[in-house]
Amino acid sequence: MSDTHAIDSLVQILSKLPALGPRSARRAVLYLLKKKTTHMASLIEALQDVYEHVQPCPICGNMDSQSPCHICADPRRDDTQLCVVQDVSDLWALERAHIYKGRYHVLGGVLSALDGIGPDELNLSALLGKVKEQKVKEVILALPATLDGQTTAHYIAELLSETGARVSGLSRGVPVGGELDYLDDGTLQMAFKTRQTIQE
Amino acid sequence: MSDTHAIDSLVQILSKLPALGPRSARRAVLYLLKKKTTHMASLIEALQDVYEHVQPCPICGNMDSQSPCHICADPRRDDTQLCVVQDVSDLWALERAHIYKGRYHVLGGVLSALDGIGPDELNLSALLGKVKEQKVKEVILALPATLDGQTTAHYIAELLSETGARVSGLSRGVPVGGELDYLDDGTLQMAFKTRQTIQE
């Protein structure tokens, strides 16, 4: 179908997005073609807006249309807490949960021997500099509970040991709404070992 | 997060696409932001190309950047066969299978009492006109094997009975690679009833 070049190349580009394959990309394109003046026009506009204005924050690594980002620019956020995350999506997840009012630092990955990601590939020297120069009292490592994530957490804890800041990590346990029966052994062991007294 | 307006509205628009929810839309946006100059730029370009050039073919209803579409414009296609499909996606599926060299007619839906789609909502009078005026010898109804699809097929067969053209439908049976054990009863009954002699 060489004549349908415009549609084909759009399908091909869309199907490279995570969560979309060739079939769902075709469905998306047909959906857009049916809603051309409404949905498709606003999608092009929104993409162009993001393309032109959104960039990584030079301070924390968040993606935002203002620079520094709205979190780094907010004077009400707590300068004494710094939360280290693997990726911008984790930062967004924490913001959606409305539980944290400190600052962030996006690593851009975790240490991984398999993927060849060493300390130099991550945004680590800037982290050490921040904690040293600023009045950071606690560094919260909100890293994935995987082997690589925990290796990275230990590496960072070691790196920051000279600064005197408290280094903490998220607790492990049974997810809210989780059935014990479906839980993996590692999580169950960890949840049992770190069990909490229930206050009456 | 009112300051991240650009990202939020892109996520919102993307999450309305079929096959994408809010979470996968966010992942897609982050992916695009990481590949801004390559992937995101070409996505915007491809979308704009489709937006400006692709439109429904006035003859068959296919979506294409040329008008009439490349199938209707192709002199090598067989004018004596006309394949009726529910939607453009079905036309594309048949084209991908490389089994048919005739012309198409896209209905834009099937009759549905529940959804309030009657004969006037479908592209039916044009179909009757085409079969009458042109040298169509066979109308192949490649409609879904659902109740609504089959109601529509019978309605069209009735509508075209005066034209003298042969009206056929796709056969029902066991899908290639299908296990009998997992098949629904209706398909199994139909496949048994319409069993074929195996040539030696």
What would you note in describing this structure?
Two copies of one chain form a homodimer. Chain A is of the alpha/beta class and 200 residues long. The first copy, chain A, folds into two domains: 49 residues, Helicase, Ruva Protein, domain 3 (Orthogonal Bundle); 135 residues, Dna Topoisomerase Vi A Subunit, Chain: A, domain 2 (3-Layer(aba) Sandwich), CATH 3.40.1360.10. The first copy, chain A, contains seven helices and six strands, in the order αααβββαβαβαβα. In chain A, the strands form two sheets. Chain A has a four-stranded parallel sheet with strand order 4-3-5-6. In chain A, strands 1-2 form a two-stranded antiparallel ribbon. In chain A, a hairpin with a 6-residue loop joins strand 1 and strand 2. In chain A, helix 1 packs across helix 2. The longest helix of chain A has 18 residues. The termini of chain A are far apart. At the A-B interface, helix 1, helix 2, helix 3, strand 2 and helix 4 of A face helix 1, helix 2, helix 3, strand 2 and helix 4 of B.
